[in-house]
Amino acid sequence: MMARNLLFYRSKNFLVAAISIALLTTMTPAIANGGGGGGGGSISSGKRVDAAESYREGVEALKAGDYRTAEKRFEEVLSVAKDMPEANYYMGLAKVGREKDKASVRFFNRAIKERPDFIEAREQVALVYIRTERPEEAEKQLVALKDMLASCANNGCEEVVMTRTEQAIANVEAALGVNTEEDADPTEESDEMSRLPGAIDRFVRLAPLSVGDTRYIEAVKLINQEKYTEAITDLYKAQAIVGPHPDILNYLGFAHRKLNRFDEAKEYYALALKIDPEHLGVTEYLGELYLETGELAKAKRQLARLDKLCTFGCAEREDLARLIAVKQSDRLAAR
Amino acid sequence: MLRRAALTVAFLGSFVCAATADEATLTETSWLGPDTDVAAFLATAPGECLRLAEDAENQYLVEVGRAAFKSPFLFGGQAARRELSCDSCHRNGHDNPDFLVAGISDTPGTADVTTSMFSKVREDGVFNPVPIPVLLDIGDRASFGSTTPKTSLHDFIGSAVEEEFQGEASSAVIDGLVAYVSHLDRTACPAGQDRRTVSNAINDVRRVLSAAEEAARRDDTETAAFLLVSAQHMLGLMYERYAAADLSDQRAMLEMLSRQSSNVRFLLGGNSAVAVAGISDIQAQLILAETSLSAAEHRSLYDLEQLRRWAGE
C-alpha cells in the first residue's frame, strides 16, 4: 500500500493533523515558505491560476480558521484537479468549518474514492454522519477503518499509520457511543471534537513547503535510478504538501508511463497541461508517450508545439526530436 | 516579489511567467544562493583567462569548446532542463561561490557530483557536495578528478558530460571542450573582472555563430547544429534582460535571430554552402540588431542600476 497518507496524531488532548512526508519519522511539522527556481525554462507571457498556490493558501486559511477563504481556494484547486484526494479532504474540512456538514460529505467521499486508505477522510466523514444522524453510514466507515487496521496488522505497515488508524477508530466509536476496551477513555476534548464542527484549524498542519521540495527532489533521483514505484510514492507526498503542481504531475505521468500505465500517465499529463498549457516537460513527455504507443503523428504534433514554445531552443525539444528521428529510422529499417 | 522568489533554492518551478521588467525572471538566478549579490553577479563575471590558440585549427576547437562550455545543450536530463552548463559552476573557468541548487549543494559554491539528480550512474547514496574547483591551469596535470579520476583530460571531460550529466556530445564537441579547458591559463587572466554588457553578449553569440559557420563548412552538421542551438540559448538569455514593456522591438529582433538560427539548422545536412550562407546572414542581422540593443541597454537588465532596482536592492 502506498504511503501517501495524511497522518493525524494525538497531541496531548487534541488531534493535530499533519501531512505525512518526513513526519513518518520526524513528526515535527512546521510552516515555511519556499518556491521558485527550475521547472519551466522557456519564456512565455500571461498569468494563469496557480493551483499549487491556491492549495497552499487554502491550507493556510483553514489553519487560520478562515473557512470561507479556504472554501474558495479549494474550489479553485478542484476546478483543475477535481480528484485530488487531499484537496477534497481539505474542502470537506472547510465545509465542516462553515457548518455545512451535509455539503462536506461528497468531498470526503471523493477523497476516499480516490484513496481508499485515506484514514482521516474516513474518520471525518464518519463524524459528520454521526452529527447528521446517519449512524449506519458512520458504521460503514468504522468497518472500513477496522479492515484497514487488520490489513495493517496482517500485512505490515508503518507504526505511525497503525497508531493513527487505531486513534481514528477510537474517535468514531466514542462518537457513536460504542463501549470499547476498558482503557478506552476518550478525552473530553476529542469527544467534543467529534460532535461539534468548528476549530477545524486544529486538524490542519501542513509540513513545510521545503519538505515538499525535498520529496520532489528525492523522486527525481529515484526516477533517474528507474525506481518508478518508489518515485510515485514520493511524488504523492510532495503533492500533498505543495498541491497540484505541474512539475509534480509531469513526473507522476512520467513514472506511470515507465510502468506502462499509459492511461494514468495521460491523465496526469492532461491535468498538468490544464494547469500550465505551456509546460515544456509535459509537452515533451506526452510526445514520448505517443511514440511508445505507436502514435507517431501525435508525437510530431508535440514536437511542433515545442518548436513554437521554445523560441530560444530547449532541451525538451531536442530530446523529443532525437527520439522521433530514432523511431522513424527504426521504422525505415524494419521495412 | 517574484524575482526574489526565483532566487530561493527550491526546486519546483513557478510556472506563472513574467510579463514586465520588474517581474522578469533571469534563468541564471535560479542556481544562486539567497545571499548572493544578484545585481553584481549579473553585471560582472570573473575574467576569462583564455590563452591564445597556437593555430587556426586549435582556435576553431577552442571556440567550439567555449560555446559548449556555456551551453546547456551539452548536457541531458535535469541539468539540461534547468539550463545548467559547465559555466554555471565554473564561471569563465573559475569557481562559482554563489552556486546553490537544492539537492546538489549544501553550502554555496558546492556541488554533489555523485547524485542521481543529474546522473543515472554516479549515485553513491551519500549527500556529499564538494567545493566547486577552479579549472585554470589543469591541462598539464597527470590525473583529473578525485571522484572518478582519469589519466587524460579528454576522458575526464567525456565522462563528466556523459556520466555526470547524461549528455551525448559528439567527439568533436568533446575535443573542443578539451581544447578550451586546456587553454584556461592564469597567465592569461585579464586585469579585472569581465563586464557583462550587451556588447559582450553579442560578441559571444557572434563567436558561436562563426564556429557554427566553420563547422558547416567542414560538413560537420552535428557540431554545427549544436552550436546553432547554443547560439539560440544565448539569444534567449539576452531576451530575458530586455523584459521592459517598451523594449518589445529589441525582443522581437532577438526572437527573429533565434528563429533564423533554428531555420538554418534544418538546412544542415543538405548543401553546406546554403547553410553557411544562412549563418552569414544571421551574422549580418546581428550587426544590425546590435545598434538597437546597445541604444536600449540602459533600459535593460544589462544596466547595473536597472539590475539593482530589479533585484530590490
The 3D shape of chain B can be described as globular
Q: Biggest interface pair, residues each?
A: A-B, 49 and 50 residues
Total number of helical segments of chain A?
15
User: Largest beta sheet of chain B, briefly?
Assistant: 2 strands, antiparallel
CA radius of gyration of chain A is 22 Å
SSE succession of chain A: EEHHHHHHHHHHHHHHH
Structural class of chain B: mainly alpha
Give the low-confidence spans of chain B. 1-10, 14-19
Beta-strand residue fraction of chain A: under 5%
- Determine the oligomeric state from the structure: heterodimer
Can you give the mean pLDDT of chain A? 80
Helix residue percentage of chain A:
55-70%
* Count of individual beta strands of chain A: 2
Biggest beta sheet summary of chain A:
2 strands, antiparallel
Q: List the secondary-structure elements of chain B in sequence, H or E.
A: HHEHHHEEHHEHHHHH
Proportion of beta-strand residues of chain B:
under 5%
**Approximate shape of chain A:** elongated
The total strand number of chain B stands at 4
Which consecutive residue ranges of chain A, at least 5 long each, have pLDDT under 50?
1-47, 182-199
Structure classification of chain A: mainly alpha
Provide a descriptive summary of the structure in words.
With 335 residues, chain A is mostly helical. Chain A has helices at residues 51-63, 67-80, 85-97, 101-114, 119-131, 135-155, 159-176, 188-195, 209-224, 228-242, 246-258, 262-275, 280-292, 296-309, 315-334; strands at residues 6-11, 14-19. Chain A is built from 15 helices and 2 strands. Chain A has a two-stranded antiparallel sheet with strand order 1-2. In chain A, strand 1 (6-11) and strand 2 (14-19) form a beta hairpin. The longest helix of chain A is centred in the middle third of the chain and has 21 residues, at 135-155. Chain B is mainly α and 313 residues long. Helix content of chain B is 48%, strand content 3%. Chain B has 12 helices and 4 strands. In chain B, the strands form 2 sheets. Chain B has a two-stranded antiparallel sheet with strand order 1-4. A two-stranded antiparallel ribbon of chain B has the order 2-3. Chain B is globular. The two termini of chain B are 12 Å apart.
